[in-house]
Amino acid sequence: MVRSYHFAEPSPQPGPGLSTGCEGAHRRASHSLAGTPPRRARRATLKPATIWVVDDDRSVRFVLVTALREAGYRVEDFGNAAEALTALDERGPPDLLFTDVRMPGDGGLVLLDKLKANVPQLPVVVMSAYTDIASTAGAFRGGAHEFLSKPFDLDEAVALAARTLAASATADAPEPAPPAAAASDALIGDTAAMRTLFRAIGRLAQAPLSVLVTGETGTGKELVARALHRESPRAAQPFVALNTAAIPAELLESELFGHEAGAFTGAQRRHLGRFEQANGGTLFLDEIGDMPLPLQTRLLRVLAEGEFFRVGGRELIRVDVRVVAATHQDLEALVADGRFRADLLHRLDVVRLRLPPLRERREDVPQLAQRFLAAAAAKFQAPAKRLGTPALERLLAHDWPGNVRELENLCWRLAALAPGDSIGRAEIDEALGAPTHNRDTDAGRPDAPRDEGDWDIQLAAWARAQLALGCDAIHAQARARFDRALLEAALEHTGGRRAEAAARLGLGRNTLTRKLGPGRHRS
Ligand SMILES: Nc1ncnc2c1ncn2[C@@H]1O[C@H](COP(=O)(O)OP(=O)(O)OP(=O)(O)O)[C@@H](O)[C@H]1O
């Protein structure tokens, strides 16, 4: 059984660009410890490991401390960083420390810094409800052993404690990486898949490994590559991107490796290739699946040896470049077809990051749309347009084949073209190129474009919008609207005659009266 706790997690907060249309939106605040206790982590004969939990949220402390104690650890908890540091002076370090990031006084990252300065070997798990790249990368850069997104599954937290303690018993203290350049975090997402991705980026940014980013077009592969660079020790060096599919095959070699003057017709001057331009930094090779086979062979050699000749050159050039490759194609299928070298795939694919399509993380749509509308408004020096609930429902129902890029383009179009400050459903329909539905003018038209069978699709879209906006108890809301729609249609059909309306609906008259509630005229 999975044990979990839930508490006030920052859900995408409706900001100035969004209206919620949701009366009952509130943050959840409950926790539960019910469930099977995990196996005891230490045998009774061994001295149990000591774990400290630092968090200003009493309920988080309570559930985590209880779960860790149940697992056999000696656990102490502290409401702030200063208390933990005092205890460190008095009693020496624990074997493992969990700390929250945002706390009154010194935050968790400051505590992490102080701990790493005094007891570098102490493994620290950083916990936060804010799983963006700035937070995860900041934690790993500061020397965190692991990043735990709140709310977390308690069994997972206990298992993480066991793993960390086991690893720290054998490992040397990790070298804290030098601070990377501060930068704004452009990747938006609050779904579980994106949080997992942000944690992976935060961790991978510190490691000099090749990364293969996969995902459909427009899912943000280049943004991921930029974030990996920005948060890495290479941040002060260049980030150079090359879209393999956009360059004619015959020019690609010289684009990558450069050429000497006179190397081929038209090569009047020496040209430094992208590898040289990226020296010390990161080279992003987009659409790697489109690279011609002969060039794949050359790339493989360069990646293996770290050196190459410019086209037409005799000087051996050595570079230190981290390569991040991306593709929307199935590289394994290309390998099977003989169109991609298996050994190159293995070299590029040391770590793979998969970006989910937007339709698999629709809950991120409101936040993304809000960000894009705000960016467009800033550019146009105009107030940001707002998305009404029907518009949001329509956005949530769309499948986004072009992913985030399609949403971004749509928002810019709306910001430029939609009349008025509030964007309605019809404008989204129009911008998406779908037939325009207008409740007022379409109602009653026999040829109304609204498909009679699509109300369940619209209901699903409404539910997604409400959930994305943080509304609770939406079943009751939906049922009330469902009943109202049926009752009103039936009463309209029977000219207001309740008995007949009830019969046509297959309801008892009393049930219909109850559902109509007080204040309805009797017929
Ligand atoms: N998570 C995100 N948060 C904010 N903006 C995003 C996000 N993902 C993508 N974008 C925006 O969407 C657009 C497309 O992103 P990007 O170019 O990184 O996608 P891609 O997967 O590399 O696309 P392609 O495969 O077509 O090259 C960019 O303008 C980018 O800023």
Automatic annotation (TrEMBL):
Keywords: Activator, ATP-binding, Cytoplasm, DNA-binding, Nitrogen fixation, Nucleotide-binding, Phosphoprotein, Repressor, Transcription, Transcription regulation, Two-component regulatory system. The keyword S-adenosyl-L-methionine does not apply. Pfam families: AAA_lid_14, HTH_8, Response_reg, Sigma54_activat. Residues 50-165 form the Response regulatory domain. Its main location: cytoplasm. InterPro entries: AAA+_ATPase (IPR003593), AAA_lid_NorR (IPR058031), CheY-like_superfamily (IPR011006), Homeodomain-like_sf (IPR009057), HTH_Fis (IPR002197), P-loop_NTPase (IPR027417), Sig_transdc_resp-reg_receiver (IPR001789), Sigma_54_int (IPR002078). Residues 187-416 form the Sigma-54 factor interaction domain. It is found in: Cytoplasm. It comes from the Bacteria. The modification 4-aspartylphosphate is found at D100. The keyword DNA-binding applies. Residues 437-451 have a biased composition (Basic and acidic residues). Residues 1-40, 431-451 are annotated as: Disordered. NCBIfam families: ntrC. PANTHER family: DNA-BINDING TRANSCRIPTIONAL REGULATOR NTRC (PTHR32071:SF95), TRANSCRIPTIONAL REGULATORY PROTEIN (PTHR32071). Member of the two-component regulatory system NtrB/NtrC, which controls expression of the nitrogen-regulated (ntr) genes in response to nitrogen limitation. Phosphorylated NtrC binds directly to DNA and stimulates the formation of open promoter-sigma54-RNA polymerase complexes. This is DNA-binding transcriptional regulator NtrC. It comes from Lysobacter koreensis. The gene is ntrC.
